[in-house]
Design brief:
single chain, 303 residues, alpha+beta, Umud Fragment, subunit A, 12 strands
Length: 303
């Protein structure tokens, strides 16, 4: 009986201990759950913070990578610039070497030149020679210019004012001989007895004026000349001749015409012959003024 009571008491004690143990276990589990929940929350918060920090670190890492890439590019450019600078320095050094060699050569040449430098006397002599050449060239230019001006004036005088003519033939002998050189002067009025030059068939002929416009000319068989019925004295003739006359006499000189005859009447072909006829005043070159050649027979022409 006592054993049964002891067992029951022991069971009750065990129940009580089990209940206490369950109560403690429940409390412990609650506490553990609370602690676990808190720890889990802390871990979650730490994980979120770590994730955020990791993201920040990643962004910084990307920026650092980009900066590193830029630095690398700048480094490459610097290396290339350094290589170019090195190459230029090498070229400059080579040029300096060449320049140094050229300077040395020039210096040697200068020394040789100094050794060959002329003396003061040689320089003065060369200076005098140059001055002489300059004076000579100046005189030569002045002379050439003077001759050119003189030639131009001569041409102007010869063509326009005072033509220079050379006598060819003997139709004006003895007044003018073959080869004589004469000067003529331009004019518009010509009178009886003047010796004139005129154009005829692209040639220049020289004859003496016998009659002008309106005059009546007549010639007898002996060669005597009559102008307007009056015999004219001709002391410049050596011999009179009827010559190559084929015009109808007496003959009246037309308007603006001049009747001319050569002083060598026997051979002269002139206004007595229709081959020449009277001369138009517009064809007259000028009146002969002076004979200039030959020098021993220089003379003025008068009548």
């Amino acid at each position: 009986m006592e054993n049964e009571l002891g067992k029951e008491e022991l069971k009750e004690e065990l129940k009580e201990e089990m209940q206490e143990l369950e109560t403690q276990t429940t409390e412990t589990a609650g506490e553990v759950a609370e602690v676990a929940e808190k720890e889990i929350e802390e871990v979650a918060e730490n994980t979120v913070e770590a994730a955020e920090e990791t993201e920040d670190v990643s962004e910084e890492t990307v920026e650092a990578a980009e900066e590193t890439e830029d630095v690398a590019e700048e480094t490459v450019e610097a290396i290339e610039e350094n290589e170019e600078a090195t190459a230029k320095e090498a070229e400059t050094a080579a040029t300096e070497d060449d320049t140094t060699e050229d300077v040395e050569d020039d210096f040697d040449d200068d020394e040789d030149s100094l050794q060959r430098f002329p003396t003061v006397e040689a320089i003065q002599e060369e200076l005098n020679h140059e001055r002489y050449k300059r004076r000579f060239r100046s005189v030569l230019r002045s002379t050439f210019f003077s001759l050119l001006v003189a030639a131009a004036i001569t041409v102007i005088l010869a063509v326009i004012v005072m033509p220079v003519l050379q006598i060819i033939g003997s139709s004006m002998a003895p007044t003018l001989e073959d080869g004589n050189i004469v000067l003529a002067i331009n004019g518009s009025k010509y009178k009886k007895g003047d010796v004139i030059a005129f154009y005829y068939n692209n040639n220049i002929l020289i004859k003496r004026v016998i009659g002008v416009s309106g005059d009546w000319i007549d010639i007898d068989e002996a060669g005597n000349v009559f102008v307007n019925g009056e015999w004219i004295d001709e002391p410049y003739l050596i011999e009179k001749s009827f010559g190559e006359t084929n015009i109808e006499l007496p003959y009246q000189v037309p308007e603006n015409r001049i009747f001319v005859m050569g002083d060598n009447r026997a051979v002269s072909i002139d206004s007595r012959n229709t081959a020449v006829g009277c001369i138009n005043k517009e064809m007259v070159v000028g009146r002969l003024l002076i004979r200039v050649w030959p020098l021993d027979n220089i003379s003025l022409f008068t009548h």
